[in-house]
Design a protein that fits this description.
Oligomer: single chain
Distance between the termini: 61 Å
Largest sheet: 2 strands, antiparallel
Helix content: over 70%
Strand order of the largest sheet: 1-2
Structural class: mainly alpha
CATH superfamily of one domain: MetI-like
Length: 303
Amino acid sequence: MAGVSSALYDPTTAAEPTTGRGRSRGKARRDAGRPRLGRTAILLISGLYFVGPLVGSFVFTVDDPVKGFTLSAYSQIFSVSGLWPALRLSLLLAAATIALVFLLLIPTVIAVRLGSPRLRSVVEFVCMLPLVVPAIALTSGINILLRWGTDNLASTPFWDTLVFIQNSSFPIVLLLAYVVMALPLAFRTLDSGMRALDVRTLLEAAQNNGAGRLRAIVLVILPNLRGAMLNAGMLTLALVLGEFTVSSILGYNPFAVWIVDGNSAGDGPVTTAVSLVSMVLTWVLLLVLSFSGGRRTSAAKPS
C-alpha cells in the first residue's frame, strides 16, 4: 500500500498543477486590473478636460489684479443690467420648445409604433435632416424668407403676422428654429424609449380592462414613457440655453447672446460668473430631474 500511495502521490508532479493554477490566477488578476487602470486614466483625463476650463474661469472671476481674491463678481450678478430679461427669454423659449417638440413627436412616435411601423424610417429621415444642415445655413434660409416677406407682404393681411412672429419679447421665428434643431435629439430619445416598451401588450391590457384607446395611451403608455420624455426635455433645455449662432444672427438677445455681449462690453468677470452659476444651477436641475425620474420609474416597476 505504501508503494501504491507513493506512486499515486509524487510531490514534484503534484506541485505543477498548483503552480500552474497560481500563475493563471495571477495573470487573471493582472488582466482584470488593466481595464480598471485604463478606465481610471480615461476618467481622470476626461475630468481634467471638463473641469480645467471651469477652474480657470472661476479663478478669472475671483482674482482681481488690485484687490486680489474677491467675490465681487458674484455679488454683482443680481444687479447686472440685462441679465434677467435675457434669462427670462431663454427660459420661455426653452419651455415653449419642449412643449412644441413633445406635441409634434409624441403622437407621431406612438402612431408609427402602433399603426405604421414601416413609416418609422421615413419619420426618422425627416427628423434627422437638421443634423446635416449647419446652423448658419438654417439662419440664412430664415433671413431670406423674412426678407421676402418684408418685400411682398407689406400690403397684405399677412403683414401683421410677419411682424408678430418677429416680436423681440417672444420671437416665434426663433422658437420654430429651435424646434427644428431639437428634433434629432428628441426623436432619438423618444423613439428609443418607445421601442423599449411592449406597446401593443400594454394597450391591449388597458383595453381589456375597459379603457378606450385614447385613455389607454394617456394613462398607460405615456407614464411608461416618462423617462424618455424627461431625457428629451433635458436635452432640449440644454440646447436652447446654450444656442448662440441662430439667435445672434437673427438679432435677438437670449441668455447665450447676452453673455457674449457682456464679455465684449468689458464686464468679463461678472458675465463669466453668471455663466458658471447658470451652469451649476443647470447641472443641479438636471440631476434633480434625473433622480426624481429614476425614483418614479423604479417605484412604478412591480416588485
